[in-house]
Amino acid sequence: MKLLAKKKGNLTREKIADALDLYSAQDKEALRRRLRAMERDGQLMFDKYKGYALMDESLMVSGKISIHQDGFGFVSYSDSEKDLFLTAGEINHVFDGDVVQVLMSPSGSGNRSFNKLIKILERNTTQIVGILKRKGDDFYLVPDSSKISHKVDVDDRKMMDAKAGQLVNADIIEYPTFRQNTLVQIVEVLGHPEDPGMEITVALHRHGLVEGWTDEEFDHAEACGTEVAEQDKLGRADYRDLSFMTIDGADARDFDDAVYCERKKSGEWRLMVAIADVSHYVRPDDVLDVEAQTRATSIYFPGHVVPMLPETLSNGLCSLNPDVDRLAIVCDMTINAKGLVISSEFSEGVIHSHARLTYDQANAVAVKRQSKMARDVANSNPDIIEHIKNLHDLYKVLIPARSKRGAIDFDTQELKFNLNKNKKIASMTPVIRNDAHKMIEEFMLCANVA
């Protein structure tokens, strides 16, 4: 390094050998290995045309790598710069999501293959899900993730009674290098690939998602009870006489928003959007808040939900279920004939949902009033029919205002997965978005703008 610093430029291996008086084949081989090691450790840069030079620290960056299923990867290191491309050969011992140090191409030629992986700074994969395989006396894992192309050996000293052909979850006990494979130890046998619901089980483990709850989290949720305490209603605006209703998908289990609409004598509209007041039960930094921040959201699979909060809350006290009192944050808006929100007020309130409707039911009442579904709703909930019509009439006022302000309509095709008795996908059918879907979306936008 002193030699290269003194020369202030590139030197070939031959010139370095001459400068260091290394003439024997043995010495030159030792020099070759040493230079390769220094290059690998990020001490030297190598150019096949110019030779070796001291590392230019300004070209060294670090970031998280995203690996493509074909083996190559991109390193994100700056919000303002393009990601750096790394070839499959550079990263055959790296996992998707690892934080790595990269030497950017010094040429500025844009040849992306010049970027060089220096070292792995942080490992972010600790477990691998895959199918256990056997070859002779050795076991290995075929990862479920297409982003893992490494060979994965299995420590056969702790097999958890797993059999070849089964899906397992395994801890990484030795990370791969250029000289050795990944070594894992089985910690859980998931079952056979054809077992009912196995796709969901694998997805949960692949992404490190937690489905259950600790005793502390469960007890904390249970302590909230199953009904709203009378003392919790004190000091809140009482909206229980208003015909709030929830409108959601047929398979929805929790209802976090409810709506109510009436036409004022002035010709303006009163729109109220109620959102379940989760913050009353989940306080900052308590055990449920910490876990909810980790989960970030509820996760929906076909026929299965992993909630962000225990079911006691997510499907109970924090769900605006029909015919029960619930605490909510209520946005009370006045909307003029041009579809503009001219006033709004937020309050902590108590509501009593008068009905749980599906999108299809609400749409039938709004636009297919002579259909059997509309008549069934009218027979079971006659008091809400006028309010559904009010909601739809207001929606028709909001649409021209939406177009006038140039709002973009992301109306993409959604598919529904239909499962058979073994929880395997039997078919897929398109979800038909009707006026009820769009109506609720518009009302949520109004509340957000307010």
UniProtKB/TrEMBL annotation:
GO terms for cellular component: cytosol. InterPro entries: CSD, CSD2, NA-bd_OB-fold, RNase_B_OB_dom, RNase_II/R, RNase_II/RNase_R, RNase_R_HTH_12, RNR_Ribonuclease. It is found in: Cytoplasm. One of its GO terms (molecular function) is exoribonuclease II activity. It holds the Pfam family CSD2. It catalyses: Exonucleolytic cleavage in the 3'- to 5'-direction to yield nucleoside 5'-phosphates. GO terms for biological process: mRNA catabolic process. Keywords: Cytoplasm, Exonuclease, Hydrolase, Nuclease, RNA-binding. Residues 236-450 form the RNB domain. It is an enzyme of class 3 (hydrolase). It comes from the Bacteria. Its EC number is 3.1.13.1. Residues 62-119 form the Cold-shock domain. This is exoribonuclease II. It comes from Oleispira antarctica.
